[in-house]
Amino acid sequence: MKGPAEREGGAIASSSPADRFAAAIAGAGGLVSSVLILVVLVITAAGVWMRYVIGQPIAGIEEATGFFVVAIVMFGAAEASRRGDHIRIDMILDKAPPRLRRWLDVWAELSVLVFSAALLVTAWHTVSFSRRFGAYSPGYLELPMWIPQSAMIAGGVLISLVCLARLFILLRGGRT
């Protein structure tokens, strides 16, 4: 019989509404990340085509791609964490007794939660400063910098939600 936190396809099997909400939010972030990967592919291909085949480069392609890559990482990180696709030392965890492994998992989630909190605070200050100062990107796009920087806030929130859900599962005796 499966426990409340057994894995389904690499992800935590959610049993509580909070777990399902965090999974849905992380999944939405993963979907946004996937769509942005396709957008980067299309605009990069268009930029290469226009520059090397047509001979008319499109201004701002490299700048836009850089902004999108940051958004891809920020929106996809929570889904990767939820699915267990992040980097960790499974060789050590696999040899640990179940009780120690659970506490190592709790410690790891708390560490990521502290990181995501620091990311949120720093991103909030960065976005606030950029809005107050009126900072624009230095390239062809001249985009207000708070817009692409806001992806860091969204990513921090998503990662925090996933960590909280995983901690909840671990602390009530489940596995991630």
Automatic annotation (TrEMBL):
It is a multi-pass membrane protein. Residues 41-172 form the Tripartite ATP-independent periplasmic transporters DctQ component domain. InterPro entries: DctQ, TRAP_DctQ. Keywords: Cell inner membrane, Cell membrane, Membrane, Transmembrane, Transmembrane helix, Transport. One of its GO terms (molecular function) is transmembrane transporter activity. The keyword DNA repair does not apply. It is found in: Cell inner membrane. It holds the Pfam family DctQ. One of its GO terms (cellular component) is plasma membrane. It comes from the Bacteria. The chain crosses the membrane at residues 21-52, 64-82, 103-126, 146-171. One of its GO terms (biological process) is C4-dicarboxylate transport. Its main location: membrane. Part of the tripartite ATP-independent periplasmic (TRAP) transport system. Belongs to the TRAP transporter small permease family. The complex comprises the extracytoplasmic solute receptor protein and the two transmembrane proteins. PANTHER family: 2,3-DIKETO-L-GULONATE TRAP TRANSPORTER SMALL PERMEASE PROTEIN YIAM. This is TRAP transporter small permease protein. It comes from Pannonibacter phragmitetus.
